[in-house]
Amino acid sequence: MGVATVGTAAAVQVQQTSLVSADPANYTPNVLDGKVESLVQVGDEIYASGLFSQVQLPGNNKPILNRTNVFAFNATTGVIDTSFVPTFDGEITTLIAAPDGQSLYAGGYFATVNGVTSRKLVRINISDGSITSGFTAPVFNDNVQDMRLVHGQLIVAGLFTTVNGVARGQLASLNADTGALTNFVNHTFAGPHNGGLLAVNKIDATPDGNKILALGNWTTVDGQNRDLLVLLDTSGSTSVVSSWQTNFFAPGCSHSFDTYMRDLDISADGTWAVVSTTGAYGGVTSPCDTQTRWDLTTTAQNLKPVWTNVTGGDTTYAVAISGPVVYVGGHFRWANNPYAGDKAGAGAVPRQGIAALDANTGLPLSWNPGRDRGVGVFDLITTATGLWVGDDTNGIGGETHKRLAFFPLAGGAPMPANASGTVPNDIYTLGNPNIANDPSVLYRIDAAGPSIPTVDDGPDWAADQTDPSPYRNSGNNIATYTGTVSYDSTVPNTTLDKVPPAIFNSERWDGGTATDGQEMQWHFPVAAGTNVSVRLYLSNRCTCTQVPGQRKFGVTIDGASVATNIDRSASPGPNVGTMKAFNVTSDGSVDITFNHQVENPL
Question: How confident is the model at residue 587 (pLDDT cuts 50, 70, 90)?
C-alpha cells in the first residue's frame, strides 16, 4: 500500500464512496523501463519511485527525460516537474511524505543520493530533490522495504540487522525530525522460513498510530508465536507485541518462497485490514495466492479471516482499502476462484491483474479494466480524485500507459446496494454439485511430465519439469516413454476420481546415493492438523531394471518411514501402473522423501 496524504499519524488511503472509472486518464506520464513501486501525493504533485531511468509524457515527439528511480509530476495535468531531479544509485522501494509537507522520506537499496553517501534511507526536499538539512539518516546495514510515521517516530522496516551499528532486527524507530535512533520500536524477529532471511517487508499503522501491522519472514516475535504476521501495540511509550494472533499463514506455501506475504492495508477507521499473498494454489482453505480481511478490534488467539478471496494460483502484490471498496493488483487471472489451480473453477470471475472487491464480502465488483499482467502491481493509492496504479507493464484498461496509470472518480459507477434477504427463501449452491473431490484434492503433480488436463472434477495435473520447482527439491533426472501401460486395481478409474494414462509416460529418478543428503523430495503446504491421503502413482518402465530385485526404494513422509523395499518390477510387474496411498496428518507441510536402497528411486 502507498501513502496518499500527509498530516496523519499513519498512511491512510483517501476514502471514496463510489468505484473509480475503468477508463484510465490519458495525460499520465510513461515510465519507459523498470517498475514503479511507490507513489505518494503531496499537494498538487505525485511522486513516483522504484527502479527506472527514463520518463516521458504521452503523445508524439515528447522529450525523453532521465530520472534515476524517482520523479514528480502534476496530478491533474501529468506535466513532469523539471526542478525535482534527485539522483539515486539504487532502487527506491518506499516513499512517504514527511510531516512538514515540504519533504519526503525515501528508503530502499541505494547507497548514495545526489552523489552523497546515504545508505538505504534519506530525507529530500520536494522543491528540488536536495537532501533535507537537520535530518541525519543513520546507516542501515541492509535494505529498507517500507516506512510509516507514528507518534513523531519514523518506523522503518526491512532486512537490516543494525542501525548505526546498534542491533535492530528488521524494524526500527527514528526521531522523525532528526533521524536519531530511538527505543520506541525494538523487537526480536526469529525463525525465518525456507532458509530465507529475516525480513519485515510491509507495515501499516492505524490512523491514531496506536497499532502497527507487519508482515514478512519470521516465526516468532519477542519469543511469541506470530508466524509471518504480527500486530504491535504502539499506544504506550514503547511498542509491544499485541495478543492479537493468527495461525492462518503458518502452514506455508510453495518452498520457492521464503515468505509468501506480499502487502497489507489498514482501513481508515483502523478496525480492519486486508493482507495479500503469493505461494501457488493450495486449495479452498489455503492462505496461498489470496486476499484476506482481518478484524483488528479483538485481542484473541488463532484468529480466522473475515473473508478470503482465492485467485486460483496467482499472486496479488498491492492492496488499497477505499471505503466500501478494496482495490487489489498483481498478476492474477481470476477472482473468487477457490476450486481450481491455474484454471477457472466453479464460481471464478475473470479479472486480469487488477480488481475491485466488496469490502464486506470479498466478492469481485463489476469494475474490470484489466491490465498486462507482467509481474504485478506494486502500489495502489486512492486520492480525492481517483486511483493511482504503479506497476511493471505497458498496458492497462485497454490502453498504453507505461508503468503508471490513473483511474478518475469522474465517470465511475456507484457502489451496488447491499440487499438483505428474507426468510423463508431458497438457498443455492454455486458450482458443480458432484465435486465431492474438487475442493478436497489439494495437489496433483505430474512428477516428470507436462501439465495434463483433468479427466474428472478435480484439479489438473500440474507440470513438474523445470528447476527450481514450486514443490520439489532441485536436481534429479527425467525419462520419458511412449505407448501405454495397463493399470492394476489400485489406480482410481471412477467418474469423480480418474487418472489419465499419460502420467505413466514420464519418470523422475534420483541419481544420487543413500548418503549424499540429497534424496528426491516434494513439499506441499497443507494446514496443520489436516488429515490427508498421499497417493503415489508408480510404474517401472525402464528396461534397465525390469528384473525383480534390480530396483528397490523406500518412502518417508514427514520424517516417518511409510514404506521400504518398493520393487515395482516384482509387484505389479514392469510396465504396469500402480498406486500406493498413505494417510497422514499434516504438521503444516507434507514432506515426501524417496530413499535409496537398490539402484535409484523413481
Answer: confident
Q: Give the CA count within 13 Å in the CB-facing half-sphere of 18.
A: 14
CA distance 103 to 82: 17
On average, the pLDDT of the chain sits at: 90
DSSP-derived secondary structure for 127-185: TT-PBPTT--PPPBSS-EEEEEEETTEEEEEES-SEETTEE--SEEEEETTT--EESSS
Residue 377 has pLDDT above 60, yes or no: yes
What's the alpha-carbon Rg for the chain, to the nearest Å? Answer: 26
- Mean pLDDT on 472-494: 79
Residue % of the chain over a pLDDT of 70: 93
Of the CA atoms within 13 Å of residue 411, those in its CB half-sphere come to 10
What average pLDDT does the segment 209-228 reach? 97
d(CA 442, CA 454): 13
What is the rounded CA–CA span in Å between residue 200 and residue 433? 43
CA distance 464 to 270: 43
Whether the Cβ atoms of residue 552 and residue 597 lie closer than 8 Å to each other: yes
Of 316, 391, 416, 319, whose CA–CA distance to 24 is shortest? 391
CB atoms within 10 A of CB 584: 18
pLDDT higher than 90, residue 315: yes
Cα distance between residue 277 and residue 313, in whole Å: 10
pTM of the predicted protein model: 0.74
Asked whether the beta carbons of 93 and 38 are under 8 A apart, the reply is yes
Pair 173, 212: CB distance under 8 Å? no
Residue-level pLDDT at 4: 40
How would you write 472-531 as a 3-class SS string? Answer: ECCCCEEEECCCCCEECCCCCEECCEECCHHHHHEEEECCCCCCCCCCEEEEEECCCCCE
Q: Locate the DSSP E strands across 44-142.
A: 45-51, 54-56, 65-66, 70-74, 92-97, 103-108, 112-113, 116-117, 121-125
Pairing of strands 211-217, 229-233: antiparallel
Nearest in space to 30 (alpha carbons), one of 399, 412, 410: 399
Q: What is the DSSP letter of 60?
A: T
